[in-house]
Design brief:
Elements lengths: L2 H10 L5 E5 L6 H15 L4 E6 L17 E2 L4 H10 L2 E5 L11 H6 L3 E6 L10 E4 L6 H11 L8 H14 L10 H12 L4 H9 L4 H12 L2 E3 L4 E6 L1 H6 L22 E8 L4 E8 L5 H8 L3 E2 L3 E6 L3 H13 L2 H4 L2
Parallel strand pairs: 1-2, 1-4, 2-3, 4-5, 5-6, 8-9
Antiparallel strand pairs: 7-8, 9-10, 10-12, 11-12
Helix pairs in contact: 2-5, 2-6, 5-6, 6-7, 6-8
Length: about 350
């Protein structure tokens, strides 16, 4: 953040505000961690604060401190709309395009308020009064920590805030193994631990609580894996019938795409997941090295994200989507085999 933006935010927050904090649709650990961390910080200044998630999110995130305040826009629509109508300030966290909020999209586009964006994805849209965007950051949670520091508010950091921010940094860095994890990231994480975040307990809550049906679904996913050594690529498909047969719950496929990258010689991993309710194939892309899945997703599958982690979608059925992917992949053979 530059000095002008910091001064603007300080001015906006210098008097009591009605604030709404919003993550992207299908929020992940970084989205919910940053929202709940910022919630705790803003509440300490006696602002009236609401967190509105566009839809539901995985059970393995619902243990997080202050999770009970989150309004699900799909299930608590009237209450959420009332909060939005009254809001004087809207924070949008972990996304940079209002279209990422699903049914909230139209409401936010028409909303008159001071918008403040905090996000680390590429190509931000210009909708906010204050835009804090930095694609070099490990996570939005690290940026919320910086945001608090810029405002001189780290003394407000309690155990709950530290726990939420640690959770988001841990999940968005793949437990601190991704390239975006910097020495600064580790310094921030160390401070969060010093302020009360229990790193072992957080890891157990997020990663070590499985149901038998989820593990069986993982078995199906791995058995469906297709390996294309000539393209250094591995992809997984999961149909709606396979999800239904294993009592699928939101978040159950989290991390499945990463298994492809554990194979020797693989630099590009993809998972295709059928969602009949929305009529789409949801796609997650991962890579190691210099192959940009952000550009791949933006160019071919209506998506985007980071250079090594991105998402997309297809409106075709699974067979057509896979055929399209395989055709496109042939044009990237040289990039995948530099």
């Amino acid at each position: 953040m530059n000095l002008e933006d910091i001064a603007t935010v300080k001015s906006i927050l210098s008097q009591p505000q009605k604030i709404v904090i919003i993550p992207h649709k299908n929020p992940d650990g970084d989205a919910m961690g940053s929202c709940l961390g910022l919630y705790g910080y803003l509440k300490s200044f006696d602002h009236e604060v609401a967190v509105i998630a566009p839809n539901d999110y995985p059970k393995f995130l619902k243990w997080m401190p202050n999770n009970e305040v989150v309004l699900n826009f799909e299930k608590e629509n009237s209450q959420a709309k009332k909060c939005l109508e009254e809001a004087t300030v809207v924070f949008t966290l972990d996304f940079n395009d209002l279209s990422r909020t699903g049914q909230l999209h139209t409401i936010l586009e028409e909303k008159e308020a001071d918008f403040i964006m905090i996000d680390h994805h590429q190509q931000p849209k210009d909708y906010a009064r204050v835009t804090y965007s930095d694609v070099t950051m490990s996570s939005t949670c690290e940026m919320v920590y910086n945001f608090m520091e810029y405002l001189g508010g780290l003394d407000k950091m309690d155990k709950d805030i530290a726990t939420n921010l640690y959770t988001g940094i841990m999940t968005d860095t793949g437990s601190f193994k991704y390239r975006s994890t910097s020495s600064r990231t580790h310094k921030v994480v160390a401070d969060l631990i010093d302020r009360g975040a229990n790193n072992m307990e957080i890891h157990q809550q997020v990663f070590d609580t499985n149901s038998p049906s989820r593990l069986h679904l993982l078995g199906v996913a791995l058995s469906n894996m297709v390996i294309l050594p000539e393209y250094k690529t591995a992809y997984i498909t999961i149909t709606q019938d396979e999800l239904d047969a294993h009592d699928f719950k939101k978040g159950d496929t989290e991390g499945f795409v990463n298994y492809g990258l554990t194979l020797e010689g693989i630099v590009f991993a993809v998972i295709f997941i059928e969602n009949k309710e929305e009529g789409i194939i949801k796609i997650s892309f991962r890579s190691v090295g210099d192959f940009s899945v952000n550009e791949f997703a933006r160019t071919h599958f209506n998506g985007g994200g980071h250079d090594n982690a991105a998402g997309g979608r297809s409106d075709e059925n699974m067979d057509v989507t896979i055929e399209k992917f395989n055709t496109i992949l042939k044009t990237y053979k040289l990039q995948l085999n530099p």
